[in-house]
């Protein structure tokens, strides 16, 4: 026994103790232990109900409670033959009915305490939280059998509390409805199913599986990826302290709630992606990478459907994604040839008639200055980018026969670069002009704006260039 917890699987117990001493996180599975009963106190003012006429006290105070008492007694007599879940206990070596003696009186007490508590708190401002916490404390006090064997007496407790809320709160119809929703939610949940559903590992697995299928490498969604990886929506509400147990209750979302959330998030996320906007924004050269991403995800969905057991609700988002990817696959494969034919028919016109001549002159000049030196490029000769730009612009205007003015100041070049600059200017000239260099006085004299040539005659400049 550890506290109120009786371990029924000795191997698990050994592992549990070893881990506890090693300060590891403890991994005792709920199939390996049994939680015993604890007591829940009634409100201070509580007194057993008493029939004013007959003087009989609870549970003999009235017909309703008398019948309830009989039903509970009958149930415990038959326990564990009362239901299929409990019948399984008969074959367990650790099971001993004696340990449950007293559960009938515990049930009677707790039902009466709860009835009193509900009426006692119903007019308080925080009536709902208060009653909710009290009922939760009562539920916990029934303990827990190892997984698969249910809880002893809890279903009867919940049945009678629900019954009381339904018939005993007629003066508070709105509050009654809210409490009924709360208690029915607990009542309708199969305890075994509930435990499985709130299994943290399973929730994480479900969430990660969703992450894997989402198109986070696509534009618009990329920015969202981190957010979704870091904030996993596993908690149902903020953790709060139950005033009756002092336990912090962290309630995990149920598997089904998580999945319906994922269905909603899927819709939200895919709406962020806008393929046609991407195309008109001219990111068309990225189409290949979108296509690859989409094909990868489609493959992943296909493989996941074969290898993973998605439940029906989960399949909703899987199918939505599947369709969405297929739509985009179709869109991109249709749009791609259209874009490339548009580009190939558009570009020659464009190039020949307007933009390209200027670009070509400039790029020819820049290309040669880029290779004037292996690593330094134009910086080998020019001292500043401004100087370089002024000179390139000047040459562009010259070769394109536009108006130009020679710079006011001489452009100072780095020393010992004269020959190389000369050679480079010669190649540029040969590429951009058909007129013989020697007789092109206009060009040669233009070069006097460079410090290397400022004091030379045109003929001397010619000689340097052709060295
Ligand atoms: Zn009664
Ligand atoms: Zn049973």
Q: What report would you give on this structure?
A:
The protein has 467 residues and is mainly alpha-helical. It folds into 4 domains: 1-33, no CATH class; 36-197, no CATH class; 200-336, no CATH class; 371-465, no CATH class. Helix content is 59%, strand content 2%. The chain is built from 18 helices and 4 strands. It has helices at residues 10-21, 63-78, 84-87, 103-121, 127-140, 154-168, 173-188, 191-197, 200-213, 222-230, 255-272, 275-280, 287-307, 312-370, 385-399, 418-432, 441-446, 458-465; strands at residues 5-7, 33-35, 240-241, 248-249. The strands form 2 sheets. The protein has a two-stranded antiparallel sheet with strand order 1-2. The chain has a two-stranded antiparallel ribbon with strand order 3-4. Strand 3 (240-241) and strand 4 (248-249) form a beta hairpin. Helix 4 runs antiparallel to helix 5 (127-140), helix 4 (103-121) runs parallel beside helix 6 and helix 13 (287-307) runs antiparallel to helix 14. The radius of gyration is 42 Å and the shape is rod-shaped. It starts with a strand and ends with a helix. Mean pLDDT is 83; it is low at 1-5, 20-28, 190-197 and 347-358. The structure holds zinc ion (2 copies). The site of one zinc ion (ZN) has 4 residues, from helix 3. One zinc ion (ZN) is lined by residues 49, 58, 61-62, 64-65.
């Amino acid at each position: 026994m550890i506290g109120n917890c009786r371990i029924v699987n000795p191997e698990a117990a050994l592992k549990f103790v070893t881990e506890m001493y090693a300060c590891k996180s403890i991994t005792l599975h709920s199939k390996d232990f049994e939680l015993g009963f604890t007591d829940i106190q009634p409100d201070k003012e509580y007194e057993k109900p008493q029939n004013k006429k007959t003087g009989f006290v609870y549970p003999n105070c009235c017909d309703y409670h008398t019948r309830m008492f009989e039903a509970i007694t009958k149930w415990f007599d038959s326990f564990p033959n009362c239901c299929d879940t409990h019948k399984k206990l008969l074959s367990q070596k650790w099971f001993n009915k004696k340990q449950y003696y007293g559960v009938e009186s515990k049930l009677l007490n707790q039902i009466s305490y709860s009835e009193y508590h509900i009426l006692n708190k119903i007019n308080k401002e925080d009536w709902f939280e208060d009653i909710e916490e009290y009922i939760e404390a009562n539920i916990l006090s029934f303990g827990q059998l190892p997984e698969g064997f249910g809880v002893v007496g809890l279903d009867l407790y919940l049945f009678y509390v629900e019954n009381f809320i339904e018939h005993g709160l007629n003066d508070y119809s709105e509050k009654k409805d809210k409490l009924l929703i709360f208690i029915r939610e607990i009542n309708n949940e199969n305890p075994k199913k509930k435990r499985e559903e709130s299994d943290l590992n399973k929730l994480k697995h479900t969430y990660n599986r969703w992450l894997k299928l989402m198109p986070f490498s696509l534009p618009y969604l990329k920015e969202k990826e981190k957010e979704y990886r870091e904030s996993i929506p596993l908690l149902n509400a903020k953790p709060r302290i139950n005033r009756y147990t002092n336990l912090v209750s962290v309630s995990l979302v149920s598997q089904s709630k998580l999945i319906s959330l994922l269905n909603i998030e899927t819709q939200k996320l895919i709406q962020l992606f806008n393929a046609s906007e991407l195309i008109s924004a001219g990111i068309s050269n990225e189409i290949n990478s979108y296509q690859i991403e989409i094909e990868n995800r489609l493959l992943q969905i296909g493989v996941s459907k074969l290898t993973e057991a998605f439940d029906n609700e989960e399949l909703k988002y899987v199918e939505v994604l599947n369709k969405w990817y297929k739509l985009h696959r179709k869109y991109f494969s249709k749009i791609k040839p259209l874009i490339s034919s548009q580009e190939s028919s558009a570009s020659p016109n464009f190039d020949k008639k307007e933009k390209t001549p200027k670009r070509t002159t400039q790029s020819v000049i820049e290309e040669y200055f880029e290779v004037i030196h292996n690593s330094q490029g134009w910086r080998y000769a020019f001292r500043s980018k401004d100087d370089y730009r002024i000179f390139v612009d000047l040459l562009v205007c010259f070769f394109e026969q536009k108006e130009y003015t020679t710079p006011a100041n001489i452009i100072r070049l780095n020393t010992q670069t004269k020959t190389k600059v000369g050679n480079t200017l010669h190649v540029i000239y040969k590429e951009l002009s058909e007129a013989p260099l020697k007789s092109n006085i206009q060009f040669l004299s233009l070069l006097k704006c460079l410090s290397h040539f400022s004091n030379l005659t045109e003929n001397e400049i010619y000689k340097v260039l052709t060295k």
